[in-house]
Amino acid sequence: MVRAAFNKASGAYDAAASLQQEVARRLDERLAMMKLAPSLILDAGCGTGQALSLLQARYPNAHLVGLDLAENMLKRAQASLPQPGVFARLRAVVGLSQNTCPVTMVCGDIEHLPLARTSLDMVWSNLALQWVGELEATFRGIRRAIKPDGLFLFSTFGPDTLKELRAAFAGLDGYGHVNRFVDMHDIGDMLVYAGFKNPVMEMEHLTLTYTELKGLLCELKAIGAHTVTEGRRSGLMGRAQWRQFEQNYERFRHDGRLPATYEIIYGHAWAGANDRLDDGRQVIQVKFEQRRAGL
């Protein structure tokens, strides 16, 4: 369902994804405070490639891997990459120059990374982790693919995200219309259990406003965010329920605008030593010293 939603939304995604673009910029600003020179970087859940240009600018000599579940998103990401000029391609053919920042596109699942163990220097993920089914297992898989002391930097949504929308739907039909998001402190605990060290978690609220409710709903649909992973209603709401939903949301109108709150969680952590199995169990080495019994 998630893959189908984002494949369908790929054409309209960039025009509607202003929030995702702003969060990517804020996530990139956090890298300015970190000293590292990664050779291989994974953009996990790269979408249409909005963050690839940011990573290229900050790490011009790194090889980037853009991974996404939706093939149509990857096609748009590939098309958005700057293409070298004729002279640059000719110089590369004769060995006089090389692309300083190649990009490889991979159609794959963040929950089951198709990448070799300890192959990555850094993993970046902007507003993609909220779509995974098992977050803790996903963290273990990411840790498996990162080299010891490599960096994992990400953003995701917290529990207050779309709280107005959730409140407006509450009590109407008993179905889940808005995804549930994991608390920041629980995410930090999951990182430690997955084998990361020194996790740093931050949170802020960003609010978008709309003149009409239709604007919010159309924007959510345009970015593929209309899919609910569990508790989803299979049919359409009746007219009476829809009118009640609209009336419920109108209670949040302020200064002539309807708000939509997003809780943005930022996190980063460093990969610890490879002392955990894929299921999260820690390997403890015990050395036994043999001693001779005294005469």
Protein model, in words:
The protein has 295 residues and is of the alpha/beta class. The protein is built from eleven helices and seven strands. It has a domain at 2-159 and 181-207 and 264-271: Rossmann fold. 34% of the residues lie in helices and 22% in strands.
> Could you state the CATH homologous superfamily of the domain at 2-159 and 181-207 and 264-271?
Vaccinia Virus protein VP39
User: Beta-strand percentage?
Assistant: 15-25%
Low-confidence stretches: 85-93
Helix proportion range:
25-40%
Label this structure with key terms:
295 residues, alpha/beta, seven-stranded mixed beta sheet, 11 helices
Topology of helices and strands:
Blueprint: H1 2-9, H2 13-16, H3 18-31, E1 40-44, H4 52-58, E2 63-68, H5 71-80, H6 86-93, E3 103-107, E4 120-126, H7 135-145, E5 146-157, H8 163-169, H9 184-193, E6 196-210, H10 213-222, H11 239-250, E7 258-271
Parallel strand pairs: 1-2, 1-4, 2-3, 4-5
Antiparallel strand pairs: 5-7, 6-7
Helix pairs in contact: 7-9, 8-11
